[in-house]
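Homework help board

Subject: predicted structure for assignment chain

Our instructor gave us this sequence and asked us to write out the predicted structure in C-alpha cell form, then describe one feature. I got the C-alpha cells but I'm not sure how to describe them. Can anyone check?
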Amino acid sequence: MKDTQDPRTLSARTRAVHAGTRRSQYGEVSEAMFLTQGFVYDTAEIAEARFQKAGPDEFIYARYGNPTVAMFEDRIASLEGTEDAFATASGMAAVNGALTSMLRAGDHVVSARALFGSCLYILEDVLPRYGVAVDFVDGTDLDAWNGAIRPDTKAVFFESVSNPALEVVDVAGVADLAHAVGAMVIVDNVFATPTFSQAVDLGADVVVYSTTKHVDGQGRCLGGVICGTRDFVRGVAEPYLKHTGGAMSPFNAWVMLKGLEHMDLRVNAQADTALHLARSLEGHPALARVIHPHLPTHPQSALAQAQMAKGGTVLSLDLRGGKEAAFRFLNALRIVVISNNLGDAKSIVTHPATTTHQRLSDETKAILGITPGLVRLSCGLEDAGDLLADVMGALDAAGAA
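My C-alpha cell output:
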C-alpha cells in the first residue's frame, strides 16, 4: 500500500519521514527491509511481461530495483525536488554513473578544478581514456567557465562547495552559461546537503550525493544517489548502472531511510556548531586561515549566504606550522577522531594533503589551496563547548614545537 498524501502540501522535514513509504499487507510502521536478490512470478507469462516492461511497483532483480531501495529513491527525490532518483552503491558510483552514462567518445566536459580526489580521478584519468575531452577551470570564476564552455560542450561538473578548501561555486551562474549551449549541469551537492541547498532550484539538471555522509550520518553504510528528471534517471543513468552493478543494497537503503528521518535535526545542529567554532577560532595565532562559507572573511561569503541557508557542517583550518603542526594538532585531539569521512554524528578531522588528496602533485595541491597545514574538520553532534575546548587544547599542543 503506497502513501497517497500529496507531498507538495508537506514541509521538507515531514517528507523526510514519510515520503515514498510503501507498506506491505502487514501495515508495518517502520519501512520494511526487502532483503532479497530476486522476485517470484506466478506464471511464465507474468515473467515475460515483467521483463518487457516492469511497472512502478514491479521488480525483477535487486540490481535493477527493490521495494526498500525504491522507497529511499522516492523520499530523497521528494526532498531534492526532482522527478526521480537512482540509489547507488557509493557516492563515487553516483558521480561515475551520472557522468559515464551520458558521455561518449568525442564529447566535451568542463569541470571545476577543485574536486575530491576520486572525482578528479574520474575526470582527469578515466573519462579521457575513452575519448572524452575534459577542461578544468577555477570553479569560482564565471569568466573562466564562459571561456571554457563551447557550443559542443555536453556537460559541466562541479562541487557546489569544494572539498576540502570550501570554495563556493555560483550554481545559477554556471547553469545559465551551460544551458545557453544545451549542456547538462551535474552538481555534487554533498557539502551543502539537501537541507541547506536545493541545487535544482538554482539550475542544476542532475544532483549527486554521497549518502555515506549526512544522509546516513552515523558512519554505518556506503551509499550514493543520482537525482534528476525521470527521463535522465530511468532513461540514461539506470540502464548503465543496473548493467554495470552500481546499485544500492536493500539493507543500505533501509539504513539511509532511517537516516533521512532525522537528517534535518542533525545537520542543523552540526552546522550551528561548525559556525560557532569557525567564529571562535578566527584570529588564533596558530592558524593562518579559518575557512567556513558563512564567515565574512570567506571569498564567496555573499554567494554562500544567498545559496545556502547555513554554511554546512564542515570548516577547514590552516595551521601555520605546516604538516608537522597539523600532525601535532590531530594527535592532540581527544574528542575529535581522525578519519576521512564527514557529515557524521562524531566529529572527524582529516589531513587532506596526506590522505584524501595525497595523489595530487604539490603544484596541484597549491592551486587548490591544499597546504601542508590544512585540516578539514567535520563537526558532529557533541556539545559545541566541549568541541571548542578540544580544538583549542590541540592548537596549543600544535604550537609547542
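Reply (TA_rk): Your C-alpha cells look well-formed. For the description, you could write something like this. DSSP finds 14 helices and twelve strands in the chain. That's the kind of observation they're looking for.
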